[in-house]
């Protein structure tokens, strides 16, 4: 059953999204009723065009809708057009203090400029960036960060706080609006989950532009995933947020995967196989941990949304399997029950289980993509 269908019969699943105005980042709509997009950022030297393009492609394969690329030097924008042409998704040029990098990136295909107008100098420089953005159809992302707040705001508030983050964002917004530019989105990020959530809530009540969510400097793969899931998940559950980036000390592809898992857990996006699995215990009829690890690795190529339950025993297994497209529960004597569309269907031996489940998922994905889900014959296709 789809997430939309579930909300009709279970209203406690419903998330009422904040109504923001929509902008375009290249060909990706952000805000309004558009799907919440998932972003990441490359960590290759931008001057190494080949390595940067290769990494972007890996991120796109993982599901990235938008990718940000740092542009700190003239060398980094010299061949930026080669990157934007090859990327396949909109590219955000990450600019900090050098406004000329923004002009160069805009002329070479950037779909969005990540720049804080107040950091680049005079009003004349802001006007130049706005002219370049308008001429090239670029959006702008204002990126306020608790770790780099303006000195006057730190002196005014004494420390990074929600009020300081919001005031900084509003100051930057005004600089763009004074130049009649409105195609912008805003982030007010902090590493502190409480600070970030409070700042986003306050900003969401003040402006109507799309909001880019993130818990910055979240940490490594495990710790950063937890922090990001709490912070970003909390905001999304409250209906706040139009695009997200999970900031991890890990490869950018991992950021994309975690981002989609957050959205999938809240029913906001569906992509690939959603695995429901038990933590394993002494009742398990097969090695659940190793089985799930193997299945997740072997099913990474599946983009079609579907659910798979992997339960080690028959205590909670049947109940969970009834809620998924394909399921397996552990049984005795090395034989396990396979469920299809929530109904018990057949048994499978331990030795054949992994290959069999992979074949079932691949066959169902192919049938769905071909528009033949109702004609899906798992027995015939899995045996091929």
TrEMBL record:
Catalytic activity: (2E)-4-hydroxy-3-methylbut-2-enyl diphosphate + oxidized [flavodoxin] + H2O + 2 H(+) = 2-C-methyl-D-erythritol 2,4-cyclic diphosphate + reduced [flavodoxin]
Gene3D superfamilies: Dihydropteroate synthase-like, Sulfite Reductase Hemoprotein, domain 1
Domain IspG C-terminal: 275-362
Co-factor requirement: [4Fe-4S] cluster
Entry binding sites for [4Fe-4S] cluster: 278, 281, 313, 320
Domain IspG TIM-barrel: 20-259
Keyword terms, alphabetized: 4Fe-4S, Iron, Iron-sulfur, Isoprene biosynthesis, Metal-binding, Oxidoreductase
EC numbers on record: 1.17.7.3
Domain of life the protein comes from: Bacteria
GO biological process, one term: terpenoid biosynthetic process
Pathway(s) this gene product operates in, as recorded in its UniProt entry: Isoprenoid biosynthesis; isopentenyl diphosphate biosynthesis via DXP pathway; isopentenyl diphosphate from 1-deoxy-D-xylulose 5-phosphate: step 5/6
EC category name: oxidoreductase
Cofactor stoichiometry and binding remark: Binds 1 [4Fe-4S] cluster.
Pfam family, any one: GcpE
Database matches in InterPro entries: Dihydropteroate_synth-like_sf, IspG_bac, IspG_bac-typ, IspG_C, IspG_TIM, NO2/SO3_Rdtase_4Fe4S_sf
PANTHER family in alphabetical order: 4-HYDROXY-3-METHYLBUT-2-EN-1-YL DIPHOSPHATE SYNTHASE (PTHR30454), 4-HYDROXY-3-METHYLBUT-2-EN-1-YL DIPHOSPHATE SYNTHASE (FERREDOXIN), CHLOROPLASTIC (PTHR30454:SF0)
Function recorded in the entry: Converts 2C-methyl-D-erythritol 2,4-cyclodiphosphate (ME-2,4cPP) into 1-hydroxy-2-methyl-2-(E)-butenyl 4-diphosphate.
Family that this chain belongs to: Belongs to the IspG family.
Protein's UniProt name: 4-hydroxy-3-methylbut-2-en-1-yl diphosphate synthase (flavodoxin)
Organism: Aurantiacibacter arachoides
Phylogenetic lineage: Bacteria, Pseudomonadati, Pseudomonadota, Alphaproteobacteria, Sphingomonadales
């Amino acid at each position: 059953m789809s997430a939309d269908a579930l909300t009709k019969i279970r209203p406690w699943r419903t998330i009422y999204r904040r109504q923001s105005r929509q902008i375009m980042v290249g060909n990706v709509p952000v805000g309004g009723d558009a799907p919440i997009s998932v972003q990441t950022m490359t960590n290759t030297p931008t001057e190494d065009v080949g390595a940067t393009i290769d990494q972007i492609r890996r991120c796109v394969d993982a599901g990235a809708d938008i990718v940000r690329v740092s542009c700190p030097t003239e060398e980094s924008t010299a061949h930026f057009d080669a990157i934007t042409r090859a990327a396949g998704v909109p590219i955000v040029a990450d600019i900090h203090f050098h406004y000329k990098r923004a002009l160069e990136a805009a002329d070479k295909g950037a779909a969005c400029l990540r720049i804080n107008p107040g950091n680049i100098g005079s009003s004349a420089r802001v006007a130049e960036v706005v002219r370049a953005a308008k001429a090239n159809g670029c959006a702008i992302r204002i990126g306020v960060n608790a770790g780099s707040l303006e000195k006057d705001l730190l002196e005014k508030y004494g420390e990074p706080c929600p009020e300081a983050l919001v005031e900084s964002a509003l100051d930057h917004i005004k600089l763009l609006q004074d130049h009649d530019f409105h195609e912008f989105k805003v982030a007010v990020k902090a590493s502190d989950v409480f600070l970030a959530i409070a700042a986003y809530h306050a900003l969401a009540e003040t402006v109507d532009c799309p909001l880019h969510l993130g818990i910055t400097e979240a940490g490594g793969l495990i710790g950063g995933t937890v922090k990001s899931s709490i912070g970003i998940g909390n905001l999304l559950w409250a209906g706040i947020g139009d695009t997200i980036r999970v900031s991890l000390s890990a490869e950018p592809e991992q950021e994309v995967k975690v981002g989609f898992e957050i959205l999938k857990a809240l029913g906001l996006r569906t992509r690939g196989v959603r695995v429901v699995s038990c933590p394993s215990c002494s009742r398990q009829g097969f090695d659940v941990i190793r089985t799930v690890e193997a299945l997740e690795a072997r099913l990474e190529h599946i983009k079609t949304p579907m659910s798979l339950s992997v339960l080690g025993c028959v205590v909670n297994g049947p109940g969970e399997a009834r809620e998924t497209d394909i399921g397996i529960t552990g049984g005795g004597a090395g034989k396990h029950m396979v469920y299809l569309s929530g109904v018990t269907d057949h048994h499978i031996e331990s030795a054949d289980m992994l290959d069999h489940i992979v074949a079932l998922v691949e066959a169902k994905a192919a049938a769905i993509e071909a528009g033949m889900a109702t004609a899906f014959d798992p027995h015939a296709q899995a045996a091929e």
